[in-house]
């Protein structure tokens, strides 16, 4: 049997858009290594609804 790897798929959601109360969401799918980064991932990504680069945090 093959072992499960350390890489997992995570969903990144825009924090600025969520707090603004506007309808819709900006989400990205990415992969991370659980062993190297056990904490939640935070990346700056482009939000097409707000038309600017914002912080996207990992959601469960």
Automatic annotation (TrEMBL):
Gene3D superfamilies the UniProt entry points to: Ribosomal protein L33
Xref: SUPFAM superfamilies: Zn-binding ribosomal proteins
Record Pfam families: Ribosomal_L33
Superkingdom of origin organism: Bacteria
Any one of the GO CC terms: cytoplasm
Keywords annotated in UniProt: Ribonucleoprotein, Ribosomal protein
GO BP terms in the entry: translation
Record-level Gene Ontology MF annotations: structural constituent of ribosome
Family under the similarity heading: Belongs to the bacterial ribosomal protein bL33 family.
UniProt protein name: Large ribosomal subunit protein bL33
């Amino acid at each position: 049997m093959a072992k499960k790897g350390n890489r997992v798929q995570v969903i990144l959601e825009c924090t600025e858009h969520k707090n603004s109360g506007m309808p819709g969401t900006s989400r990205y799918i990415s992969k991370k290594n659980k062993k190297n980064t056990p904490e939640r991932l935070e990346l700056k990504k482009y939000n097409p609804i707000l038309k600017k680069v914002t912080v996207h945090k990992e959601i469960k």
